[in-house]
Amino acid sequence: MDEEAAEKAMGRAFGWTTQAYWRNTKVEEVPKMDEMEARIEYLNSIGLTTEKLCKVVNKCPEILGCDLAQLQGATEHIEKNFFMKRNTNNFSNYLVRVPQALGNNIDCAAEGVNCLGECNRCWARC
Hints:
Blueprint: H1 3-13, H2 33-45, H3 50-59, H4 68-82, H5 89-97, H6 108-111
Helix pairs in contact: 3-5
């Protein structure tokens, strides 16, 4: 990314520019380098090459703002419910196509509740 694109991505990832994704759960958060490195290392460990990680971040920079537990939970959900294993081409290609899946943490249909209006983080979109 060039500097302008990186600044835009960080703005979306940490709630500096918009709350469309975070819904006021992150408001101008200051990222910690060790946490960012841990997230990137985790994403590499589940099969995202540097090239694919760049595509994921370009499409959904908010992934950089998700905590490690969120990323791990979403990975487990994908493996269990979409029958894909991490560190496979199918898994990494899916994440490139649907990067927001890594930030999903709501499943209205499976929980048997009415729509919570959090469609930007709902598994129903995947």
